[in-house]
């Protein structure tokens, strides 16, 4: 199938779109990809929505307005790509992720985006709502990209770790015997972006300049590294805001701007090192995707925290900016064909679990 994958991640920076030809198990061809940034007003409103999402109904007018503007931007991304496709994979924007018991509003993962409107406008069927079925089956609802990573890395030497540094970090560990272990490592660019916005007014710490000018604070770092999430065995996943309280309690907010950025970058890398303790065996190397690989402070901290070589995914010929969007093209084909999206080793689902919904140009569809 010719698919277009659309991903708008937890960094709230915009929509990534990528064209992929796939049957959901193998990738025949990657096509062009692009990123359409959100305008500052949409970015600000989505950020506000993250704070509100635990307490507002699905028909809240502010939420519906954000959803309509978000869907519009996704439709523009499809139009700008300007390619024929049989199916769109539309992740939508996560505004709340509380799959676990014991949290207010738990048992829920919430992605906004109007799939029917996108299908009508693009005149292409849309696969969407990729996470709910997994959560309903007892899984974490995230991460979803591991099955795509496994297909992509089929011929690479194992064990291999593929790390995505978005707003949140997630890792896929692939073993020699086809074993798959995946989970969210901890906060990545999310707290760094918030820090940069407060300290410099920029959307992010461009090229890690602020972090590289500072020193990590040992006391704050020590407190953050004691967070129970890091020691907890997988399966596990995070909401974009899950560490905000811990960051406040550790006193990260009182650090000078450069030291604060250095502390957050080092924490992200140490959380990845803590994640590696849950792997069945050390990886031969780490391949890093996502915007975080463009931050030299993060890459330097990772190289310091991990004993194995760390490389951007470009060393094996992948496109680290397009990877998540490509994944949702492949996942869309899996929804279409009724193939499982999640597994015990990825989300903790009780078995291989199908998911996603299909919306045709003129109404809902049933998977093949
Ligand atoms: N040149 C750069 N220097 C520093 N940081 C950068 C640079 N380019 C991108 N980033 C970081 O990467 C982030 C975007 O990463 P990415 O697009 O992978 O996240 P996402 O897909 O939104 O998140 P997630 O994977 O959690 O869903 C930006 O918010 C910024 O923090
Ligand atoms: C709930 C949600 O949207 N989670 C995202 C987020 O961003 C990174 C990490 O946390 C990952 O678990 C997931 O995204 C990727 C695409 C995934 O599901 O594999």
Automatic annotation (TrEMBL):
<dbReference type="GO" id="GO:0016301">
    <property type="term" value="F:kinase activity"/>
</dbReference>
<dbReference type="InterPro" id="IPR043129">
    <property type="entry name" value="ATPase_NBD"/>
</dbReference>
<protein>
    <recommendedName>
        <fullName>Anhydro-N-acetylmuramic acid kinase</fullName>
        <ecNumber>2.7.1.170</ecNumber>
    </recommendedName>
</protein>
<comment type="similarity">
    <text>Belongs to the anhydro-N-acetylmuramic acid kinase family.</text>
</comment>
<keyword id="KW-0547">Nucleotide-binding</keyword>
<keyword id="KW-0808">Transferase</keyword>
<comment type="function">
    <text>Catalyzes the specific phosphorylation of 1,6-anhydro-N-acetylmuramic acid (anhMurNAc) with the simultaneous cleavage of the 1,6-anhydro ring, generating MurNAc-6-P. Is required for the utilization of anhMurNAc either imported from the medium or derived from its own cell wall murein, and thus plays a role in cell wall recycling.</text>
</comment>
<keyword id="KW-0067">ATP-binding</keyword>
<feature type="region of interest" description="Disordered">
    <location>
        <begin position="346"/>
        <end position="368"/>
    </location>
</feature>
<comment type="pathway">
    <text>Cell wall biogenesis; peptidoglycan recycling.</text>
</comment>
<keyword id="KW-0119">Carbohydrate metabolism</keyword>
<keyword id="KW-0418">Kinase</keyword>
<dbReference type="Pfam" id="PF03702">
    <property type="entry name" value="AnmK"/>
</dbReference>
<comment type="pathway">
    <text>Amino-sugar metabolism; 1,6-anhydro-N-acetylmuramate degradation.</text>
</comment>
<feature type="binding site">
    <location>
        <begin position="9"/>
        <end position="16"/>
    </location>
    <ligand>
        <name>ATP</name>
    </ligand>
</feature>
<dbReference type="InterPro" id="IPR005338">
    <property type="entry name" value="Anhydro_N_Ac-Mur_kinase"/>
</dbReference>
């Amino acid at each position: 199938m010719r698919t277009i994958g659309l991903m708008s991640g937890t960094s709230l920076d915009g929509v990534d779109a990528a064209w992929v030809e796939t049957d959901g198990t193998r990738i025949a061809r990657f096509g062009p990809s692009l990123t359409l940034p959100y305008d500052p007003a949409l970015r600000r409103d989505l950020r506000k929505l993250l704070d509100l999402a635990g307490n507002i109904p699905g028909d809240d007018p502010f939420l519906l307005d954000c959803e309509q503007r978000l869907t519009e931007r996704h439709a523009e991304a499809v139009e700008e790509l300007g390619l024929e496709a049989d199916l769109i994979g539309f992740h939508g924007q996560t505004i709340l992720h509380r799959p676990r018991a014991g949290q207010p509003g738990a048992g829920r993962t919430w992605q906004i985006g109007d799939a029917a409107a996108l299908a009508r406008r693009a005149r292409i069927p849309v696969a969407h709502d990729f996470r709910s079925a997994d959560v309903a089956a007892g899984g974490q609802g995230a991460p979803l990209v591991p099955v795509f990573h496994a297909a992509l890395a089929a011929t690479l030497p194992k064990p291999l770790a593929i790390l995505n540094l978005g707003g949140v970090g997630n890792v896929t560990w692939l073993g020699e015997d086809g074993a798959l272990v995946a989970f969210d490592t901890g906060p990545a660019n999310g707290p760094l972006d918030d820090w940069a916005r407060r300290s410099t007014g920029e959307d992010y710490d461009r090229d890690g300049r602020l972090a590289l000018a500072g020193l990590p604070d040992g006391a704050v770092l020590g407190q953050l590294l004691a967070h129970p999430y890091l020691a907890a065995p997988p399966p596990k996943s995070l909401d974009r805001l899950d560490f905000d309280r811990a960051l406040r309690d550790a006193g990260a907010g009182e650090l000078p701007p450069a030291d604060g950025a250095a502390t957050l970058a080092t924490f992200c890398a140490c959380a990845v090192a803590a994640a590696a303790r849950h792997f069945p065996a050390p990886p031969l190397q780490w391949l890093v995707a996502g915007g975080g690989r463009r931050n030299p402070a993060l890459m330097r901290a990772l190289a310091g925290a991990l004993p194995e070589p760390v490389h951007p995914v470009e060393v094996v010929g992948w496109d680290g900016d397009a990877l998540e969007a490509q994944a949702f093209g492949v996942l869309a084909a899996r929804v279409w064909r009724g193939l499982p999206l999640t597994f015990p080793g990825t989300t903790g689902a009780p078995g291989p679990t199908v998911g996603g919904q299909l919306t045709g140009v003129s109404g809902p569809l049933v998977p093949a």
